[in-house]
Every structure is written in structure tokens, then in C-alpha cells.
Amino acid sequence: MSNNSSIAKQAFEQGEGILRLAPNWVPRSFCVPGRRIKLHPDDYYALGGERGGIDERWFSSTTPADNGPLTGEIEGLSEVIFEHNGTTERILLKEAVSELKGELLGDRIWDEYESWPMYSKFFDNKGALPHHVHHRDEHAKLTGQNGKPEAYYFPPQVNNHGGDFPYTFFGLNPGTTKEQVLECLKNFTEGDNKITNLSSAQRLQPGTGWNVPPGLLHAPGSLCTYEPQKASDVFAMYQSLVGDAIVPEELLWKDTPEDRVGNYQHLIDVLDWDLNVDPNLQEKCFMDPKPVKPVDQMETEGYVEKWICYKSEAFSAKELTVLPGESVVIEDAAAYGMIMMQGHGKMGVWDIETPSLIRFDQLTHDEYFVSEKAAAEGVKIVNHSQTDPIVMLKHFGPNNPDLNL
After folding, report:
1. Superkingdom of this entry's organism (predicted)?
2. Model's pTM, two decimal places?
């Protein structure tokens, strides 16, 4: 490594095309932590009660969190860790992307987006969230943002309990009218606007997932959720009361242009109406994992890999299991971020491990970003345990060339 090269370049060379990332904790003032993301019990309110509890950890993020006027300067932004000669330096993944460009992301992603256009996270809430929507591009651009498709997967490793309400409302009941929804929105400040009376809840099952296109109302349940999504934090809350908690009216109008605040018809227009009332919504959006190859063949080779998020063009995700005592080389056609869920061993030049407990300011060896070149050449993963599998989740950018289901 040259002393004259940048931290990004040195970190890239040190990891042979794989960057080590620091844990990236994000609070939400309107949430109560479910305490399943391995943060130390003393640290769930490490940023102070005014900021709310930490119930999210963001992965491979170049997207700032939108948490109002108290948001930290780099809140939501992942950091690259470079340790050398007893010193530790950090730079933002966003800065590394801007410098390394296609060398990190691959020319296909860099030439089209000139950025890393997705991120993933753990969402870990004790209760359910309000019925809300992420805007489509046409409505998000009115406030200078991107629309946000997202997807859910419920990892068994972080779902030892289901929280208060492990059911998610998706969309609206077939036959619901726009007038019924308008009435609920106009009653937002009257207590319970009862919008979930117009919807149906699905019981959430660990080891499965859901695709959530922009414009689709959804009230996420209380399982700890792995969420790949487009690089945006745009949303609006359409439900006024969840449990015993009142939702502030300002969140109803969040990401609405100033000249349309108070225009309830605009809130209806934000919805993808046909999708919300589609009687086949479950068939379109539910995701059972799909093996990338025949399972028997993969097991013979020492691993099992499954697509877990595969119904969006904006991102995709896999679950990789390396069997106990095995050494494998895994090839992918695209750059990806990853988070360890179980086990320990080696990945390329790096140690990988799954901590049971993490302090707020502690560094770990459980999260990395793999360049396209390293992914295509094949990443060697060695499981050092004779009994415990390695399990990792891998999140990819748009239009993954390997996704041919």
C-alpha cells in the first residue's frame, strides 16, 4: 500500500477488493426498539431520549437518514474502516464510491447511476408501524427525492420473539373506494382514523419475505426485518393511531410539496390505487426463498444459497449458508454488501464473525462491501466451525445479471 494513496484506495487494496464497514445505528423518534439487533441493552437510547430508541441498523448505505432537525451529520451513512500500523481511520462509503467509481461498483452500475443506488437495514420495532406509503418517483421528485421500492425478509437468527404484533397490513381490501380512504385521511386529527379497517393483515413468518413496491400502503408488523431498498428515505404516514400511540399530523404530510399540504386528493394520488386494491396482492408480493441451483448440488459443494428478495428491479438479495467445516468459492456477477447472521470464519483476507452483543461505538467484523471484480472472480469463504454454519445476507444493486428466475 502506498502512503500517498487515499484512505479509500488503501482500504480497497488492503481488503483485496472487499471493504470493511462499521455498524451504522439509526434511531427513530416514533418507534420503540424490539431489542433484537444485538445492540447492548444500555445503548438503545445512546443518542438520548429526545432522539428516540435505536431500532435500525443500516447496511451499505450512502443515503442519509431523514430524522428531522436533530438528525446527526452522518446519520444513516455507512463508514469504511481502515486499520493500519495501530491506527484506525474512517471514511464514508459514499466518499469511497465517489473515488473508486466503477472499480468498486462495476461500470454497469457506475455509468448509469454514478452512485450506489440502494441500501439495506435491520428494522427492529417492538410494535407495528402505522399504515404508510413510500412515494413513486413521480411524486418523490416533487420534493427532490427518489421513490422507494423496498422488500422484507425475516431472518430466523434475529427473530427469537415476534414482538407485540407480528402481522403486517398490506394494501386495501378489494372494493375499497377512494372516498372511504379520503374520509380516513380527513379524520387524521380526530384520534383513530381507522384506515386499517379498510385493509387486511398477513401473519409474518420467519424465513420468508414480501416485496413492497412504491405506492403500496403497508403497516409493517413487529418481526425484526431485513429490508433491501432503493436509496431513499421518502414516506408519509396515513394511519393516525397505532396501539396507544398518536401519530403526529406532520408525518401525514411528510414529503408533500408545501403548496399541496392540506390537499387530501394529492395523498390519494400518491397511492398506486390498482395495486392497493388488487385481489391477487399476496401472490404478487409474497416471497418464499428460491434456491439459486438445485439444493442437492449445492450441498455437495459445501453451501446453500437462496434468493430471498427477487421481485424488484431496483435491488435483490440472497441468503448464503456455508456448511460447517467447508471451504467454498462463491461467484457473483455484481457488487454487493453483506451482513453476517451466524457463524465465523474467513472471507477473502478478512475474518468474519457474528457478534452476540455490540456496544454503540464498537467496531465489528460482520459487515463488508464486495466490489464487482472481487465478486466475479469469486470470494473464498472458509467456515472454521465443525458444527455451526456460516449464514450471511447479501444485498445487490439494480438489475442483477444473475437474477433469472
Report:
1. Bacteria
2. 0.96
